[in-house]
Amino acid sequence: MIPSGIGFMALATTDRITGDEIGEANRQNKTSQVISYAGSVYGLAAVTGAFYFIGREKHDDRARETGVLCAEALIDSLIVEGALKGITQRARPADGIERSEFFDGGSSFPSGHATQAWALATVVANEYRDRPAVQIAAYGIASAVSVARFTGHKHYISDVVAGSALGWGVGRYVYSAHHRQAPLVTMQFNRDARQYGVGLTWNF
Q: 2-201: what CATH class?
């Protein structure tokens, strides 16, 4: 946590410099905007629905479960990200002289697109651990969305890094909470030896 905190502070300290530098480049704006659509609530909701309904149609329990967990991760990430935006109120790169400042009525920190994209990507990657191509695609798209939010002048680097880490944590929590096994209690006895006991098995 300490190295991560130091790294984040270093990014936050240099955000205005890096933000102003990327702000001078406009060629990539259209591409960044298109990529950002993949991380929007509508785009991610479409992915969630596709997993669920295709899973139902094909009788694929894993795809259907992925859709359900993606919906939960999307809702959780929206709540957490919205709360942090309300607390930090960081000004966006386009907010003029107050840009990059915290507690100034903005909504830059953390990046919502990055948070939501990484939350869904983590769920998908964990559900399909046996398919490296799916994992690479999921994390690759989430990474592209995160980068696009910076290159599209919508967020600072620390915004997307924090959002990505937050989304990964939410996705990991949702997946782990669903797959956590309850303790198994078994009675053990041997009448001949008059021995009795209780066995406890817990996988975590």
A: mainly alpha
